[in-house]
Design a protein that fits this description.
- The protein has helices spanning 10-19, 32-39, 50-58, 94-106, 123-135, 172-183, 195-226, 230-237, 261-271, 277-300, 328-338, 378-383, and strands at residues 2-6, 24-28, 62-65, 76-79, 112-115, 143-146, 165-169, 189-191, 309-313, 342-346, 352-353, 356-357, 366-369, 387-390, 399-400.
- It is an alpha/beta fold.
- It has an eight-stranded mixed sheet, with helices on both faces.
- Helix 4 (94-106) crosses helix 5 (123-135), helix 7 (195-226) runs parallel beside helix 10 (277-300) and helix 10 (277-300) packs across helix 11 (328-338).
- The longest helix is centred in the middle third of the chain and has 32 residues, at 195-226.
- The N and C termini lie far apart (53 Å).
- The structure holds nicotinamide-adenine-dinucleotide.
- The site of nicotinamide-adenine-dinucleotide (NAD) has 29 residues, from helix 1 and helix 4.
Length: 401
């Protein structure tokens, strides 16, 4: 069976490698250098090893392409393209738009079309299906389903096989075919009664995290003002065996999901006449953390950062991955520069970012740790500057958030 996965990024490539154990997989991506590297068996995604891609290519089970006609004949098409926010922090569905078009223009028979991209409830029913029907020259009775992705890049204990996967089709047949597809490489499938439930659950999972991270970031500020150790407070609260879940303070939220998905929920809520006050406030609190941190650093350093060399340590949005999307490090660098600091950054996992290379972990007046990768040693961070501010709680001996 021929299966096309549209988008060969964190989600799409991960799925492709698992699916290639059972199907002939076409990895369709608009980025020609990603396609060229994948066809050489080179992975650009943490958690997907190059040898698995090479193996699938050699077994004639995987091919990457940016040619729409290559998806012709697919019986299943999975959409795994970015769903970011636009400049006004509203849902940007332009990648879904182009995926819909490529499907409509190139499928020559009925297929099961599954969306794994995160989006608001109603996306498959009201946004993807009607457009595919509109753009198709020949009308087919395609099946449509949702199965939101829950991959956590860099994580080893949970993967495609053992992470429970939600799914639902627009029809019972779509639901059954979706179950058959995923059951070949996922052991834990959870059927829900409508695609909208699956879409809403995915958004709520990340909204829950965004809101709780904002709450704990607010507690960090309150604790500092009161002279209380926030991490000890959280450890103490965490001894309660029920009714409490521990979240940790940080420079904010990053990545493709937590800073983005709640705004999809807020947007759809607004359209339904509900003001998502919690979601909006959580977003504001997290987005303001870099400014708060820059202010603390300034205060601790004689009330001025003018001309001071500040090194931001770790610009990836989380440890041990190279992903800088929506990283709070970016807002922190801006906030420090606004206060007159000369800012550089160090991140050996990211390497190069915004056209600049990772700077030496040494010789700064001030270091501010945003993300601590395992390969970056605390002793080296502490030696990099006479004053080190740590937002991660991992660099013992540094000034803590
Ligand atoms: N990264 C995660 O941890 C994660 C987890 C769960 C859900 N998601 C969701 O999954 C979706 C994909 O995220 P990702 O992290 O894999 O993104 P990504 O940026 O890593 O990869 C997306 C890929 O899609 C390609 N692309 C964009 N438009 C295309 C099109 N029209 N046709 C073909 N290829 C196209 C891009 O070139 C890119 O290679 C998003 O909706 C995201 O919110 C991501």
């Amino acid at each position: 069976m021929k299966v096309t996965i549209i988008g060969q990024g964190y989600v799409g490539l991960t799925i492709s490698v698992f699916a290639a154990e059972h199907y002939h997989v076409i990895g369709f991506d608009l980025n020609s250098s990603v396609v060229a590297n994948l066809n050489k068996g080179i992975s650009h995604i943490e958690g997907v090893v190059s040898s698995d891609i090479k193996y699938a290519i050699q077994a004639d089970k995987y091919k990457a392409t940016n040619v729409g006609a290559d998806i012709t004949g697919s019986e299943i098409v999975v959409i795994a393209v970015p769903t970011p926010l636009d400049a006004n922090r509203k849902p940007d569905l332009t990648y879904i738009d182009s995926a819909r078009k490529v499907i409509a223009e190139n499928l020559t028979g009925p297929a099961l079309i599954i969306n794994e991209s995160t989006s608001f409830p109603g996306t498959i029913r009201n946004y993807i299906k009607p457009a595919i029907e509109k753009y198709s020259k020949v009308k087919f009775e395609h099946l449509y389903a949702i199965s939101p992705e829950r991959v956590d890049p860099g994580r080893e204990d949970f993967n495609q096989k053992n992470t429970p996967r939600l799914y639902a089709g627009l029809t019972p047949e779509a639901t059954a075919r979706t179950r058959d597809f995923y059951s070949t490489f996922c052991d834990n499938l959870v059927e829900v009664t409508s695609p909208e439930v699956a879409e809403a659950a995915k958004l709520f999972e990340n909204t829950f995290r965004q809101v709780n991270i904002a709450l704990v970031n607010e507690l960090a500020q309150i604790s500092h003002a009161l002279g209380i150790d926030v991490r000890e407070t959280l450890d103490a609260a965490g001894t309660k065996p029920y009714g409490f879940m521990k979240f940790s303070p940080s420079a904010g939220v990053g990545g493709h999901c937590i800073p983005v998905d709640p705004s999809y929920l807020a947007d759809v809520a607004e359209k339904a006449g509900i003001e998502a006050t919690f979601i909006k406030r959580a977003n504001e609190v997290n987005l303001a953390m870099p400014t708060y941190i820059a202010g603390r650093v300034e205060k601790d350093n004689g009330g001025s950062l003018k001309g001071k060399k500040v090194l931001v340590v770790g610009v990836a949005y989380k440890p041990n991955v190279a992903d800088t999307r929506e990283t709070p490090a970016e807002l922190l660098i801006d906030a420090l520069r606004d206060l007159g600091a000369i800012v550089t950054w160090n991140d050996p996992v990211v390497g190069s970012w915004h056209g600049a290379e990772s700077f030496a972990l040494a010789g700064a007046d001030i270091a501010v740790v945003v993300t601590k990768h395992d390969v970056v040693k605390s002793e080296d961070i502490l030696k990099s500057a006479p004053y080190v501010f740590d937002t991660t709680g991992k660099v013992k001996g540094a000034v803590q958030l």
